[in-house]
TrEMBL record, chain B:
Organism, as annotated: Acetobacter thailandicus
Family: Belongs to the succinate dehydrogenase/fumarate reductase iron-sulfur protein family.
Family matches, as NCBIfam families: dhsB (TIGR00384), PRK05950.1 (NF004616)
Reported cofactor(s): [4Fe-4S] cluster; [3Fe-4S] cluster; [2Fe-2S] cluster
Annotated protein name in UniProt: Succinate dehydrogenase iron-sulfur subunit
TrEMBL record, chain C:
Gene from which this protein is expressed: sdhD
One Pfam match: Sdh_cyt
Compartment(s) of residence: Membrane
Major subcellular site: membrane
The protein's assembly and partners: Part of an enzyme complex containing four subunits: a flavoprotein, an iron-sulfur protein, plus two membrane-anchoring proteins, SdhC and SdhD.
Function per UniProt: Membrane-anchoring subunit of succinate dehydrogenase (SDH).
Membrane topology: Multi-pass membrane protein
Highest rank taxon of the organism: Bacteria
Cofactor needs: heme
Keyword list, A-Z: Electron transport, Heme, Iron, Membrane, Metal-binding, Transmembrane, Transmembrane helix, Transport, Tricarboxylic acid cycle
Name under which the protein is recorded: Succinate dehydrogenase hydrophobic membrane anchor subunit
Native source organism of the sequence: Acetobacter thailandicus
Transmembrane residue ranges: 36-53, 73-94, 109-131
Pathway field: Carbohydrate metabolism; tricarboxylic acid cycle
Length: 156, 260, 138
């Protein structure tokens, strides 16, 4: 079915010979607009969120499997790289949620005017950044605090 | 797989430079996309250095000047020069707009002029719009009513009913919006695009039209309507200030409403 | 540079091509499913973020006890099912946009299968946690 548009790319020279027409540049020339960038960012963060959710399920299945698998899972989440991945995932989920709320507002019929769209974009970025920083900071702090304690306390 | 990069025969190279005439003081460079079927080459960008003191304020004035006095082979569509015919739609400084309504002053630095994005190029800035016109025709943009009109007057419509058409009847079919939509770039053979969907909605909410259900049936398709990802490039691009994204949102709401 | 074309392959009229195979008759359900799952995920994710803070660095016993509680198990299961349903629809939209031709159907099936399986894994893990919780109490 893609051939449908390909057919329009056939043109002819002045002497009648059939030739292939070029395609005009698109991504290569289109101006960067925050709204366009935020839209594709919503998609990218959605994919990252799915990846993280998969890892989350693996963590849960490790917990369900038994203490030994859970320990391995704990080593992964406790490790600095693991914490970085968790922070990145959390930031993606926060942005995707904020962007998602924006989409839900549009789907309900609100904030469609050009001025509103251009105002809401920076607000979405600000809110996402703010909430992400708060959450990641809180996570790192509480993780630091309870990380030492848990090995001793609630075993029996 | 969809191609994010241009096909090999479409990659744009560097073209000629046409320097400003001697003694020109207010010079601005126009970098214009050029390609001719007789070229046997890839498209190029030619640079024209123009003295702004001797031409009108709009980008269209500049390219008409180029065609008249500098390079007669430059090819583009134009007609009314006042933003109502839609002929001179092109990508200026990265955004789709009408050349006759784009002040040269608004562009900082060189003025980059390209044809409407992701379209087959006939020559220079002229793109082939057959697909878009056919898509418009496919949504049957005319009144469809089964009841007979009143014998002595027009089909009546209240002020409120007529107000619903505002923001849609003004569309000049320039296709700035449609060719600014990334979803149309990747799926334009099946996705109708913002301009056509705006036209479809204009007829869907016209109180005098009696085939609303059929019109909505025709749009109930994963691609024709639902390839819209609310990216919002269309509303940003419209040179007449219309809001295709909002109209598309309202079509989706109607589809949902009738599904109960 | 050879840009010559041997002959014209497609002569169908523009209108015929634009109409294509006609409207498929579906689309609203998927669109609605994406929105409903998104809206449902708002409270569920908020609950989950709170739980992450409660469980950060917790021992295995704590996690099992937490997962065994009926309220937590229910919320977790709801979260997992809604998340992977939403993810499935979202990924399908991505496949529709970017993958065309022969690869399209296999990729769609792969995406649906992957999200369904991972979701199932999550749900069964929760069930196992509930059972472990029960067996521990007795």
């Amino acid at each position: 079915m893609q051939d449908i548009r390909k057919a329009l790319f056939v043109g002819s020279r002045s002497d009648g010979k059939l030739i292939q027409r070029p395609m005009s540049p698109h991504l290569q020339v289109y101006r960067f607009r925050l709204s366009m960038f935020l839209s594709i960012l919503n998609r990218i963060t959605g994919v990252i969120a799915t990846g993280g959710a998969t890892l989350g399920v693996l963590w849960l299945s490790a917990a369900a499997k038994g203490p030994k698998s859970f320990d391995t899972a704990r080593k992964v989440t406790g490790n600095p790289l693991g914490k970085l991945v968790l922070a990145g995932w959390l930031t993606s989920v926060v942005y995707h949620t904020v962007g998602g709320i924006r989409h839900l507002m549009w789907d309900s019929g609100y904030r469609f005017e050009k001025e509103q769209i251009n105002k809401d974009g920076p607000v979405a970025v600000g809110v996402s950044a703010g909430v992400s920083v708060l959450l990641v900071a809180a996570l790192l702090i509480t993780c630091g605090r309870s990380g030492g304690r848990s090995k001793v306390g609630k075993a029996s | 797989m969809v191609e994010f990069s241009l096909p090999r025969n479409s990659v744009v190279g560097k073209g000629k430079t046409y320097p400003a005439p001697a003694g020109a003081k207010n010079v601005k460079t126009f970098r214009v996309y050029r390609w001719s079927p007789d070229d046997d080459n890839n498209p190029v960008v030619d640079s024209y250095e123009i003295d702004l003191d001797h031409i009108g304020p709009m980008v269209l004035d500049a390219i008409i000047h180029i065609k008249n006095d500098v390079d007669p082979t430059l090819t583009f569509r134009r007609s009314c020069r006042e933003g109502i015919c839609g002929s001179c739609a092109m990508n200026i400084d990265g955004e789709n707009t009408l050349a006759c309504l784009k002040p040269i002053k608004d562009v900082k630095g060189d003025v980059r002029i390209n044809p409407l994005p992701h379209m087959p190029i006939v020559k220079d800035l002229v793109s082939n719009l057959d697909a878009a016109y056919a898509q418009l025709r496919s949504i049957e943009p005319w009144m469809k009513s089964d009841s007979a009109p009143p014998p002595d007057s027009e089909r009546r419509q209240s002020i409120e009913e007529r107000a619903k058409l505002d923001g849609m009847w003004e569309c000049i079919l320039c296709f700035c919006c449609t060719t600014s939509c990334p979803s149309y770039w990747w799926n334009g053979d099946r996705y109708l695009g913002p301009s056509v969907l705006l036209a479809a909605y204009r007829w869907i909410i016209d109180s005098r039209d009696e085939h609303t259900g059929d019109r909505l049936d025709e749009l109930e398709d994963t691609f024709k309507l639902y390839a819209c990802r609310t990216i919002m490039n269309c509303t940003q691009a419209c040179p007449k200030g219309l809001n295709p994204a909002k109209a598309i949102g309202q079509i989706k709401e109607l589809q949902l409403e009738r599904k109960g | 540079m050879d840009s010559s074309v041997s002959h014209i392959k497609v002569m169908r009229s523009q209108l015929g091509r634009a109409r294509g195979l006609g409207a498929g008759g579906s689309g609203t359900e998927h669109w609605w499913a994406e929105r409903v799952s998104a809206a449902t995920l708002l409270p569920l994710s908020a609950w989950f973020v709170i739980q992450i803070f409660r469980l950060k660095g917790a021992s295995h016993d704590t996690v099992v006890k937490w997962g065994g509680k009926p309220v937590n198990a229910t919320m977790l299961t709801a979260l997992i099912i809604t998340t992977f349903h939403h993810a499935g629809v979202g990924l399908q939209v991505i496949v529709d946009d970017y993958v065309h031709g022969k690869l399209h159907k296999p990729t769609r099936i792969l995406v649906k299968a992957a999200t369904a399986l991972i979701g199932l894994l999550g749900v069964f893990s929760v069930i196992k946690l509930v059972i472990s919780g029960v067996s521990r109490k007795s």
